[in-house]
Every structure is written in structure tokens, then in C-alpha cells.
Amino acid sequence: MQWNIPSLEELEHYIWRCTACGTCRVAYDFGPPATCGEICPSGSEFGFEGYMASKGKIAFARGILDGTLDLADPEFLEAIYKCTICAGCQSQCQLDHKPYIPEIFEAMRRKAVESGVGPLPLQKNLLQSMKSYNNPYQGPRRLRTDWTRPFKKAKKPIKNLNKEPAEIMFFVGCTGAFNKQAQGIPQATASIFQKLGLDFGILGESEVCCGSTAMRVGDAEEFKRVAEHNLNLFRQMADEKGVKTIITSCAGCYRAIKKDYCLSADYDKLMDGIEVIHTADYLHRLWQEGKLPLQNAVEGTFTYHDPCHTGRHLNKFIIDEDGSELWPGAYLELSEEDCLYDQPRELLAAIPGVEVVEMKRVRANSYCCGGGGGVMTGFGDWATKNAGKRISEGVEAGASDMVSICPFCHYNLNAGAKSIGSAMKLYDLTELIDRALPEK
Amino acid sequence: MTAEAAKQLDPILEELRSIVGESNASAAKHIRYAYSYDMSFVDPKMPDYVVMATEVEQIQEIMRFANQEKIPVVPYTAGTNIGGLCIPERGGILLDLKRMNKIIDIDPLDGVAVIEPGVSHAKLADALFPLGLRFGWPVGPPSASVSSCAISHGIGGLNARYGLQSQEITSMEVVLPTGELVRVGSCAIQKDAWHSTLPMPKLDGLFKGWLGTTGVVTKLGVNVHPAPPLLKIFTVSCETVEDMYSYMLNLSNYEICDDITAVSWWLSQVPIPYPYKPKPDDAAEWNSYATTFSWTEKERDARQEIWEKVVAEEQAKGTSVQVTHYPEEALRGRTQLPSQVVGSTKNYCKQGGAGISWPGTFTPAKKWAPVYTRWKDILIGRNLSPSVRMSMYRGVHYGMLRAMIPFNKQSKEETENARQAIIECLRVDLDEGGIPYKPPVDFAKEINKRADQGYLMLLKRVKEMLDPNDIMNPGKLGI
Ligand SMILES: Cc1cc2nc3c(=O)[nH]c(=O)nc-3n(C[C@H](O)[C@H](O)[C@H](O)COP(=O)(O)OP(=O)(O)OC[C@H]3O[C@@H](n4cnc5c(N)ncnc54)[C@H](O)[C@@H]3O)c2cc1C
Ligand code: SF4
Ligand code: SF4
User: Fold this and answer.
1) N or C, which end of chain A is more exposed by having fewer CB within 10 Å?
2) What is the pTM of this model?
3) Which structural domain, as residue segments, surrounds residue A266?
């Protein structure tokens, strides 16, 4: 399969668009009212300019390209992994390299992996696990369906797409499947689907990681391996089992399938007739159509945390490809139509008993939980510490509960709350919706 | 490695770490590299160490140590000065102060904010807004430091009303190059009084306009002002720079505006055309915006009446002044401050790419037209847009004359072309009595060539008195 994944050298032109103005260092909005907040978890933690937002990472990229900086230097190697690839910095920049900012960071990592030095040792374990088990959690295949036990027990089995046809494929994702603390998410999702009487199935033990983590830490080969497998499988499932929609409750899987998989030259052909949608978006559609009866009250003061992968990572950048408006390659504007900012908020607000309060940094300026980009694996303590900061912001906003739509954020924010001794309770939106829906 | 072995390996680093903590001092190449360049044409140079301080006492210790060892120290907040002022000429310690970012106090009754050097424009704007207060924001990056801009005689959106940022400084706390902590202004007499640098000798002058070569400012008092709710923007265009000068001079005499600025056609484009492209024949060469804020509609109407009178007078003189519509995006970028859009250099560099420098000067208004005419020839001759701004300062007939010159920094030739054009422009302006602000070393040398010997002697003496070992941002004054 042909892939269009750029090398650092191929991005050099864009690397030379950055003026080092440092606007990416803070989330600032004129308003009125004017608001400002930290946006870069890496810069906030490590401080030196190299760590600070895209300004610093682009300095690193220039240093690699001009031969001053050597990826074989372990301290430098570590530095390029001290970034959650949250794209908070990208939201601030206004120049032509804006669309490529996370790409530049990941291209540095790809170069490190290609040259045999990257990723970091702990992340190498994760990649080894992907190669051995097709998931980053060293989870044997048979454990992938552990989360379905309550359904079997309740005699509400979930279809296995390998055996039975269904219109909807619920792509569970490795975190929901293997991470005990996140298993409530696929369970709530499946429960909702059953309550709504949807025709859905899962891949069960044969589900393979989406490849998001491999891509984020720079292992393009491993990413391609699983992505090619999945793309072919999706086609097969569409052709043989009638799958028309792939739904996932995982922000990472969603971003990977929706955006990273598009880098394949065969994407359009293989995904023809298949819609990929996040659970929150799908349920929001049903709710708008009056098909999501949110009846049971769920009491609490909730705040919504925008995951990077369902928010600004889904920005569509409008580029003047042929130069007819400005010049070839000029960044023209941004469309947020794919970003899931409103859907989860509207669903949350529609649940009886729920009071919603907003944190200061939301939507495109949401403050990353700190877990992405391989950071949770590579720098667990920092990831937790950063999540603690986000929890504190929720507390300041007056929330007793925090909601998200990403198992990764869910896990990390939970750890963050514990680390600062906060009583903040963490929920995935599906868990609240499941509670609000009446039994069938 | 044991602490003792580490100390032997790099005793300076170990000493710095013992002052600010292990993770706040580094000699790693990748850390130093990120401080080695900025957006200007100034050649990159690396510091030997980077240190992040969070406490005044740490800065004192660093300065004592550096002074004893004669190690250069370069103060840094965001490095956006457009003049290579934080690029170390002689290596040494890059002192990054962005983590000293507390707003210590905002006193609406005194109209004073007391801030640490790392407080950004964005942070102060966020804090002032709910209090109904304002400050003269520059068109620079929101993440840049308020204090660094103020001590560098920065220019903001209220300079026709209250003066330059440095004129808004009310008191200072400074660590001297030799490590002593000093205060100037009212806070020197009563530690909580930050209201004014007067009526004492204006010792704040020892630290303003010195480009970080005389001490490290650790606290700064600045005036903040009540924000009237009604904004009116007067926009006109003129065919010639002479006509625009005449209009601005006339309007400035009434002192009704917060900012009176005019920009050449090239600067009103988003972005500045790079390389140079000719102005369309039907477009005016100059556009001006003048902002005025009022408390009541009656006040606003009275200001409008004065402005209409000025326009009528100018038209009666036969000038080409026309009431006009200022390009929308450019206007927003200049009046909705701090601006993330302009701050991110979009309006300037989006086409040029990575590089920007300026001949930025304070020039008598009567010289704007002749200087601009020469600049235009020089810049167009080098295929660069004459993207020039003129702003009138408070109650005086001089102001900012500046050409924002973007360039493709990836290309050495194009960078050098811009550098030479800018230096040429600067010479023209200096010879007409203008003075560059925040000058890179190349400019400082041009200034000093023309300077009175007595002035240079005094400059050196003051510098030697404060910094006997010439460790503070050495080389930047070009002496
Ligand atoms: C697009 C753009 C537009 C701009 N527009 C304007 C404008 O309208 N008006 C304007 O005035 N400026 C403008 N600037 C320049 C610049 O952004 C401002 O002057 C800014 O506030 C400088 O802050 P900084 O944190 O980047 O300072 P830095 O560049 O870090 O430092 C500036 C100088 O101060 C010294 N310094 C820093 N901290 C201290 C300290 N604590 N004690 C002593 N010395 C210190 C440094 O050594 C250096 O010499 C613009 C810049 C850009 C990129
Ligand atoms: S990435 Fe964009 S916002 Fe950040 S320093 Fe570079 S040009 Fe400025
Ligand atoms: S992606 Fe996020 S963590 Fe990485 S540099 Fe940008 S803001 Fe910082």
C-alpha cells in the first residue's frame, strides 16, 4: 500500500516558515473578554524554550536538519519525546506551516526510529507488544473480550462480526479493552447500543490496534502494518458482513482511522461506503432526531474536557494548493466542522439533573490531559502531574465531576485526580448516557 | 556520576544548578540551540548555559557568581525584540525569566500594576479586563513580556495619549550586575508605594533603553488606565506621504486620540508582499487609523467633530486626504490588541517566511516624508516592500518611523539582502536626526559613529559603574 507520510526533509520548507514569534506559547483570545492560559504541557513542565510549544520543537527540527543536533544524543532524543502532540500550539499559530506542526514533531520521531535510536526504551516495549500481541498493553488476544463478560452473564451477547453480519462495527480500541479502569467505556457503549436496539457487532479477539500510538511515537512501519490490516479488514467487513458504519468511543482510534489512515493512497477505495464516526457524534445525531430518550436524572456539576484527538486534531486546514488565492501551499483558513466540540456538550446538557460548568481553557484551547504522544508511557509521572493541573482547573470552575470522550484521557485524568487528592469523579460521556437511558 | 565528579566536569553548570535547582540550568546543546536565534537578520550564536530563575535571590546569586567569574549574562523573557538583543554576543549564561510571571498587585486606585518580568501582555490583559482597566498593548506577540517591552522604550496602542511604555513605568526593582538588589522610584522609599518615579532623580533611566546591559529588572510598576467603553476609529487615506504627515500633525495637535498611525499601502496588506510588488494605481499610498475612546456618546461625537474639522482643513489645503475604509483585517490586527494574529507575524511574514527585521526609529515628524521617500527607493531597489509605519507620540511632533521588512530566512542571500537594505535605510534616517530603537549591534555601531564623544564617554562610565566586568549582555551597545 502506498503511504504519503512525509519525512523531516520533506517538511523543511514549512520548518522555515516559523518566525520564532512565540505566539504558540500561550492560549490567548482577544475576546472580549481577553483570556489567557498555559497551552503547552511540555513547556509548562520543562520551561526551556526548546520544550516550549511549536516554537521550541521547530528549533529542534532546524537543529537536526542543519546537523547541529544529533538524535543519537540520549538527552536530545528524550527531549523530542517530551511533547504530548496535543496540537495546542498549532491552534495559536497563523502562518503557512500551521497545518503541518504536529507532522513536523512526528517526523522528528520517525527520523529517530528510522535511525534506530527512537523511541524511548519504555515506548519500545509498547511497540514490541504491538508486534507480539497486536496491542500496546501486552494483552493476550483472549483478554480482548474480557469487558464483554457482563453481557454474556446477562444473556445479552454482543455479535461477533467474524461470525454474524451487522450494519455497525463497534471498534473497541485497545485501551477500552485491556485497561481495567477504562473498561466501563466499551461496556457503557455496548449497553447504550443494546438499549437503542442498534444492529452492531465487534471484531472480538481478532481486533487489532488502530496504530495511533505507534504513529505518535514515530514508528511509521508498525503503524502501516496495523493500518493496512485494518483498512483491508474494514473493506472485507463491508463487503461480506454488510458493515456500513464504524463507531468508536476512543478518541485515539477515531483520530487514527479518520485522519492517519487517509495518508494511504488506497483510503478512498477501501473505505468507500463506510462511515467512521465517534460514539458521541453518533448519539448526538440520534438525539437530534429524537431517538435518544435521555430520561433518568444524573445529578452533579459536570465539566467537559475536550480530548485533543476529538477536538483540534480534527481541524481541517484549507490550503491554497494551486496558488489561485495567495500562493501555492498558503494556509488559508481552518474549518472546525469535524471537531467534536458541541456534540458532547449538548448531549451532556440534555441529561436531566446535569449542571454544566465550563473550564477556562476549552475547545480549540483545551488544555491537554498530558497523556498523549507516548507521554503516558514514556513519562508517566509527568503525565499524571499534568492531568492533576487539568483536574484543578475543573475544581476552579466549580465542577464535582469531569466528563470526556476518550479512554486515554479518562485513565490519565483519574490518575491526576488521585495524585492531587481531588474528589473529582471522572466519567466517560457514554457512562452518563447509559445511566440516563431507560432499560429497554 | 557523583556530585563531586559532575562539579569537576563542569563546575559552572554545577554552581548554577546549586542556585536554581538541577532541572533549571542546562548546558545541553539542544537547550542552548533554541536560544541561539530569533526572527531577525542577526547571526545565530549559542549561549554556554541556560538558566531559569524563579526568585529574586536566585538572580542575585547568579549575578554575584557570574560577576566573580566574569561570565556574560543575557536576560531573556520571550526573545521577540526583532533585533537579536537576546542572542549572546559572547556566550555565557542565558537567563530565562519567563517563569517569574507573577502579577504582584493591580491597584485600580493608584492605577498601577506591579509585575514580574515574565508577565506577558496576554496575562496582563486577562487580569486587567475584569477590572475595567487597560494598557497600551503593542502589536507584538501576546506571549511577550510587558516589562521587557517597557524597559526597551516599547510602543503601544495608547502612545499618543499616555506616551511610550517606558513613560508608563512607575517604579522598579533591579538586580545589579554585581548582585546587589536596588529599587528606583517611590518603591525605593516606601516598599509598597509603586506609584511614581518622580519627584526623585529619575534613576529608572539607568535601566531603560539599555537593552539589558545594566541590570536585571525583577519587578516593575506600570500605569494602567480606566478603559472607556466607546471606541471610534478615524480612517483616512492620502496619495502622498507629505499629505499624510500634514493630516497627522494637524490631528495630533488636538490630543483627542490614543493612537495616530499611518501605514503605507504595503504594510496595510495582509501579509506584506514579498518580494516587492507594485501598488495598484487606484489604491492610495497611505492609510491612517486613529483610535479614540470615549465615556459617553456626547464625548465621542465631540471628538468626531474635531476630527471632521481636521479633515476639512486638510482638504481645504488641497491635500489628497480622503475619509476612507481601512482594510478590515489589517484594522482588526491594529486595534484589537494584544492580537494573536499580528503577534504571530501573520500580517508581516506570512509570505516572506521566517525572517523579519526593521529600521525602527524615533524620527522628527517633519522628516518622515523625506526619509520615507529615500527608504522607498532603497527598499524597492532591493525588491523589498516599503512597508512603513508612522505613529505620532504624545503631545510631541516626533514619533515612530519604521519599515517592517520580512524576508526568507532560509536563504542566506535573501537575509543578507534585507540586512543591507535595512542598514542603508537606517543610515538615511540617522543622518536626518532619527534614532533607532531596540537596535541590533549593527545599528548600535551606526549610532555610535555619529554620536557626540561626550555622550559616549558618559555611556561608558555609567556602564562601567554598574557593570565593572562588562558581563551584562556584553557587546550590545556597540561600544
Ligand atoms: C510581530 C511583532 C510585532 C511587534 N510589535 C511591537 C510593537 O508594536 N511595539 C513594541 O514596542 N515592540 C514590538 N515588538 C517587539 C517585541 O515583541 C516587544 O518589544 C516585546 O514586548 C519584547 O518582549 P520579549 O519578552 O520578547 O523581550 P526579549 O526579546 O526577551 O527582551 C528584550 C530586551 O530586554 C532585555 N531584558 C529582558 N528581560 C529583562 C530584564 N528582566 N531586565 C533587564 N533586561 C531584560 C533583553 O536582554 C533584551 O535586550 C514586536 C515584535 C513582533 C515579533
Ligand atoms: S510555530 Fe507559529 S506561533 Fe509558534 S513561534 Fe513559530 S510562527 Fe510563531
Ligand atoms: S503539541 Fe502540545 S505539548 Fe507538544 S509542543 Fe505543542 S502544545 Fe506543547
Assistant:
1) C
2) 0.97
3) 132-288
